[in-house]
Design brief:
177 residues, mainly alpha
Length: 177
């Protein structure tokens, strides 16, 4: 019979998805694929696609990462429905989150450039660079935690639940949990 077009191998268990129009859609598709793979694994089904993230998960540019981070910050603020008193603490938290995203994007660009060198010019230098990357990432994360503390202390129970859910979700997306 006639040859039928096949779906991409990583999405054989689900209908093929259209190419994402922007960074937000790319991340959403990546999350949905990960959830589907996790669900299949929980049911005992073989899920080889779970080991290979969709190509869209690595296609984000530094600018898209920063834009996505800033969109997450705005969304969280909207969901929290802050009071004027709570707003006083939002600025520090928002700035820390922005810089976490911006610095992360900058570090990603550096890692991409370093990955192009094969083999690395100096393996010891590469190891030190990786250690510095982790140290800098930790310092940015610590700044977010320090800025979150006074804000979190002013939130009511409903807002705290929203905040916790959002921060855990962002950590999971970044592979930090």
């Amino acid at each position: 019979g006639p040859v039928q077009p096949q779906a991409a191998p990583t999405q054989s268990a689900q209908p093929a998805q259209p190419a994402p129009r922007n960074a937000r859609e790319a991340r959403k598709q990546a999350r949905e694929a990960a959830k589907a793979a996790k669900a299949a694994q929980a049911k005992g089904a073989a899920a080889p696609a779970a080991a290979t993230p969709p190509a869209t998960a690595v296609a984000l540019t530094a600018e898209q990462i920063v834009a996505n981070s800033d969109a997450n910050i705005a969304r969280i603020k909207s969901e929290l429905k802050l009071t004027p008193e709570q707003e006083k603490h939002w600025g520090l938290f928002s700035s820390a989150m922005h810089y976490l995203g911006q610095h992360g994007a900058e570090r990603l660009e550096l890692r991409k450039a370093r990955a192009q060198r094969d083999p690395p010019d100096d393996i010891v230098e590469q190891m030190r660079n990786e250690a510095q990357f982790l140290y800098d990432r930790g310092a940015d994360q610590r700044a977010v935690a320090d800025a979150a503390e006074p804000l979190f202390a002013t939130l009511d129970d409903k807002q705290k639940a929203i905040f916790v859910t959002e921060m855990v979700r962002l950590s999971t997306e970044r592979g930090l949990d």
